[in-house]
Write a structure and sequence with these properties.
Strands 1-2-3-4 form a 4-stranded antiparallel β-sheet. The chain is mostly helical and 406 residues long. The chain has 3 domains: 62 residues, Orthogonal Bundle (434 Repressor (Amino-terminal Domain)), CATH 1.10.260; 111 residues; 190 residues, no CATH class. The protein contains 18 helices and 4 strands.
């Protein structure tokens, strides 16, 4: 029997000027139970130890009188033992996790190390991950995630915990503890299914991930490469050609003279990226003195915007790439924002989804006609053909889109 526990409970109770009866009422037990604890006849139930510690504002280690150096040495031993357990030692694994959960009440910064090490040890262990074992880990997870406000600490732990958690609890766990950014949940699920060799479930997240990487490559280049210096145009045009050629090859398609951006095909999941690449390509042509080519590319990009503008809300855009065979986006017009069309993942039913792409005529018009950062358009901004094209874009940007539900 741990003699420190009974003595410490008695000392802490008296420090609060409570009788055994008053203290027992706070805990919902009999005063005889309190008397037996304080006289080291019995222990409190193991599930009650943290409750007693919280009541007195101390750690469970303080209640047991464990010296700091012994506490951490014992914790290290438990984690090492957990990591080395054989497949059939499930009961011992449960005991270790329960001991750590109930007896180690650490500060927030220490909790990250404790829970990360706990998850990592179990992840590395050969022990069979049964439902009862994961149930015990889940209790520790809720304690950690509910009491730790440190976002970076949570992000360190979540990949390992997500790999271990049972499938039926994953959605609720992500909704409760993961970041609001959909990319965070997708990354966690991607790593989970990859680790577990569940390739059928992995595929949707693989395709999403690849789509995002390509989108970020193209859209990041557009943002970084706003034409500001005349001597950048050749390099900008080279990069634009490289990205456009890649996009065409990736989607197994060939551009034509009249359709250098959309290839004369229906809008696909990369329609927003095509329009952005087309606009940058057009302004490069303009400042290089290749006016006819600039207008031809501009016409094709604007034609894509017009095609998207008449697609019913809720309709599906498909991928033409053999590498994204089942990837789809859903048209989602924003009635309160004039002209804008947002794209979301077709299989995402959440109301507060992350936008996966879009078509934005107002931004396109500003770049084409007024934005000083896009001054490479200056040589053609007064061209009658460009003015006629600009009117078409302005019409898309100024009309509030009201579409029937598909």
């Amino acid at each position: 029997m741990n003699e420190y526990l009974g003595n410490n409970i008695r000392t802490l109770r008296k420090a609060k000027n409570l009788t055994q009866e008053q203290f027992s009422e706070q805990l919902g037990v009999s005063f005889q139970s309190v008397s037996r604890w304080e006289n080291s006849i019995t222990y409190p139930d193991i599930e009650m130890i943290p409750q007693i510690a919280r009541f007195f504002g101390v750690s469970t280690d303080y209640l047991f009188g464990i010296p700091e150096e012994d506490k951490y040495a014992r914790l290290a031993e438990l984690k090492d033992e957990l990591q080395d357990l054989p497949e059939g030692a499930t009961d011992r694994a449960i005991e270790i996790i329960q001991t750590i959960r109930l007896e180690y009440d650490m500060r927030a910064s220490e909790k990250c190390n404790f829970f990360f090490d706990l998850c990592y040890a179990l992840y590395q262990s050969d022990v069979k991950k049964t439902s009862s074992l994961i149930d015990e880990l889940r209790k520790a997870a809720e304690l950690f995630f509910d009491s730790n406000p440190n976002a970076s600490a949570k992000s360190l732990v979540m990949p390992y915990y997500t790999r271990l958690e049972e499938e039926e609890y994953i959605p609720a766990f992500l909704d409760r503890f993961a970041s609001d950014e959909e990319t965070v949940s997708d990354a966690l699920l991607y790593n989970r299914y990859l680790y577990r060799n569940e390739y059928d479930k992995l595929e949707v997240f693989r395709q999403r991930r690849l789509f995002r990487l390509i989108s970020e490559l193209i859209e990041g280049d557009i943002s970084w490469n706003n034409p500001q210096k005349p001597n950048d145009v050749n390099f900008a045009f080279w990069k634009n050609s490289l990205l456009l050629d890649f996009l065409h090859s990736f989607n197994d398609e060939k551009p034509t003279e009249d359709h250098p951006i959309g290839c004369g095909l229906e809008p696909d999941v990369f329609v927003g990226q095509r329009i952005q690449l087309g606009q940058l390509r057009s302004c490069c042509f303009a400042t290089l003195g290749r006016t006819d080519e600039a207008i031809r590319v501009l016409e094709d990009a604007i034609s894509l915007m017009e095609q998207v503008s008449v697609i019913p809300n809720g309709a599906i855009l498909c991928s033409r790439s053999p590498v994204l065979p089942t990837f789809q986006l859903r048209i989602d017009a924003a009635p309160e924002v004039t002209g804008n069309v947002f794209l979301k993942y077709a299989d995402d039913t959440k109301p507060d989804y992350t936008v996966a792409g879009g078509v934005f005529p107002e931004i396109f018009y500003e770049r084409l006609m007024t934005d000083k950062r896009w001054a490479w358009f200056n040589p053609i901004r007064k061209d009658e053909r460009v003015l006629a094209l600009a009117k078409r874009v302005k019409k898309l940007a100024s009309i509030k889109l009201v579409r029937q539900v598909y």
